[in-house]
Design a protein that fits this description.
With 240 residues, the protein is mainly alpha-helical. The protein has one domain. It has helices at residues 14-33, 55-62, 66-80, 84-105, 117-133, 138-154, 160-172, 177-187, 198-202, 213-239; strands at 46-48, 51-53. Keywords: Membrane, Transmembrane, Transmembrane helix.
Length: 240
């Protein structure tokens, strides 16, 4: 990946952003699977705007950083990938692989009322692919983008159509970094804690970082289902 600019504060590589997002997601899902079963995690340390803030709430709020960062990284991956088909195939495969663990984590196995994050990323990826593929036909672009957003809404993917919109913003304003993070942050008004993800995103330096080769390529793909399985087993051991 090429450096986007030379600003001194742009000091975070793609690898660092992946780690920040992965840790944030792990903390969020730890709260969902483990702390949600611990009454002491809801004892408030303080109040913010009349909302009690305990350990559970702190972990969930910190977890809001993950999704915007992964959307941003997926957009970067789309721009730099050598194979659109392979990228989409990987997203689909790991989305299907992660669906049952995700459903178990959400305590609705068999209902599948909400689909995991990778489906949202896949639909966003397909929307970007349509923008590129049908660059000469704006109506086809609109049709495919709207279809992707509708599919995210209809199938109740994580962050639904708003997640696809966030991906589109990251892509369309990729050459205007300040406008990119401002508009992306505004699109998350309904989940305002996620707006803080724009800080590390704006600090991105355009470099791949220390996660290179297959390890860097498949880091998140494998981390996503494996951390869900680990937390499910841990919940069973603690609360069975």
């Amino acid at each position: 990946m090429n450096t986007l600019s030379q600003n001194s504060y742009e000091c975070l590589s793609g690898s660092v952003l992946k780690v920040i997002a992965a840790v944030s997601m792990l903390i969020d899902h730890f709260a969902v699977t483990i702390l949600a079963n611990d009454p002491e995690a809801f004892i408030p340390y303080f109040y913010f705007l009349d909302t009690p803030i305990g350990l559970y709430r702190l972990f969930r709020d910190f977890g809001r950083l993950a999704f915007p960062i992964f959307c941003f990284l997926m957009t970067e991956g789309f721009v730099h990938t050598k194979s659109r088909i392979r990228y989409a195939r990987n997203l689909l495969f790991f989305a299907l692989l992660s669906e049952i663990p995700f459903s178990i984590m959400m305590n609705d196995l068999g209902n599948f009322q909400k689909q995991n994050t990778l489906f949202t990323l896949l639909l966003g990826f397909l929307a970007l692919w349509a923008l590129e593929r049908f660059a000469a036909n704006v109506w086809l672009q609109i049709l495919y983008v709207v279809s992707s957003m509708w599919a995210a809404y209809f199938f109740h993917t994580d962050y639904d159509w708003r997640g696809v919109l966030l991906i589109l913003i990251f892509y369309l304003f990729r050459y205007y970094r300040n406008s990119q993070v401002i508009l992306a942050g505004l699109s998350l008004y309904w989940e305002w804690k996620a707006c803080f993800a724009m800080i590390p995103i704006r600090m991105y330096n355009g470099q791949r970082g220390f996660l290179k080769g297959k390890a860097g390529k498949y880091f998140f793909y494998f981390f996503y289902p494996l951390h869900l399985i680990f937390l499910i087993i841990l919940r069973y051991l603690l609360y069975s």
